[in-house]
Structures are given as structure tokens and as C-alpha cells.
Amino acid sequence: MTPRWPSVLWVVRHGQSAGNVARDAADEAGLARIALTHRDVDVPLSELGREQAAALGKWFATAHEDGRPEVMLASPYVRAVQTAELFRAASGCRSDERICIDERLREKEFGILDGLTTVGIHQLQPEQASFRKLLGKFYHRPPGGESWVDVIFRLRALMDTVSLHYGGRRVMIVAHQVVVLCLRYVLENLSEAEILAIDKAGDVANCAITEYKFDAGAGKDGNLVLARYNVTAPMEEEATPVTAAPDKMVAARG
User: Is the pTM of this model over 0.90?
Assistant: First the structure.
């Protein structure tokens, strides 16, 4: 009988993006807004981000893992798609492997807070800063945006699709920091306090590996069990700088 879950599931954050670089510059200058000329969905990888994605592909190509991905799923955001494409070009998976774009893997939507630094939120949207402090980042939904709970809701549907179509296969997901964290919440049945503690402990590194393996003895029908989290060994082996900045906007985790 085909297992309910993939044999292995890798969840990878995209490589460093131009948005990450612009956010760092805005923070250092104490600016309210991040200087970007693209929609968030169109923000590409930085040159370093491209190197990170290639390093990850080379890591898988040189048999560091128990096989290469047989299924590639990616957020539709340019930085995630580019990461998956560069991973494939570096032979991280078969050259003819299709990258399946799934909108449920998109970045958390920030609504009216999009493009603002923490300084900018307090200066330009003080009411939302107060709401966020009261509700906490898990439940706060800015106008036109999403809470973490909203992201979790779409990821539960995504995992139903993965369970239905990719049982017994090796699957890689390329997405965003909040998606990586929210998938941990879903797959490990964590509490709000537990996932926020993991988030507080440090950012998910660009192109870092979070891995789950199927364990037939876990639960009634077997389950995916966390094998490792936020591993940056591929970048270290290729002497590629490791970056772990928050996604685009400080409010994503701060």
C-alpha cells in the first residue's frame, strides 16, 4: 500500500533576495520604508542568493542526501522560483523535473504594512503596531494582509494535496521563512507558544534545509517526523556566505 506521506520532505527557504538586501539597508539607515521598485512577488534573488541556490543543488547532486527530489513544489514568487530553477540547473534534481508552482506556498501577505520597516510601522501605522502588540504576531492580521493563522490554513490544504498525490516519493518545497515555520507548526502539531519560541530563537537561513522523514511507527498510519531543521551545510561546503535575515519586512518576525 502506498504510504500516506512522502518518504522524505525537504522544506527550503529561497536564497537571499534583493528585498533582503534592501531591508538591511533601510534598517541601517533608520528609514521607514524599504527601497524597492518591484512588487513583492517580483523581487528576484541577489547575486549571493543565486550562489546559495546553486550550492544547494550541488550538495544534492553529489549524493549528500538519500536521493534527489522527485517532486519540486515552489511558491510563485520570483525569488522562490529562481531558487528552484538554479537548484535544478546545478543537478539538484533531474534536468527534466517540472517545478510545480503552488500559490498556497506564497509569502505571507503584509497588506498596508508591506514595505515598512519596524520604524516605519510605528511612525506610519501606529494603530497597527498597537494591535500587533495586543494580539501577537500569530493572530494579528493587518488590513489587506494575513496573520500566521491564515498562512497555516492554506498550508493545511497544501499538505492534503501532498498526501494525496506524493505518497512514498521524495518531495522538496521551496518557499519563504514564515512558510517554513508554519509548516513546522502543522506537521509537528505545535502550539502557538512553541512555534513562536522557535521563531524567536533565530531566522531561517536562506537555502537552509529542514527535513522530515516518514516513520511508519509514528502514530496509527505513520507520520512525517522532523529529522533536522535549518541546516546550512551545503553553503558551508561551497564556501558560500550564509545569510539569515528576515524576509523583506522586519514585521515578518520581529
Answer: yes
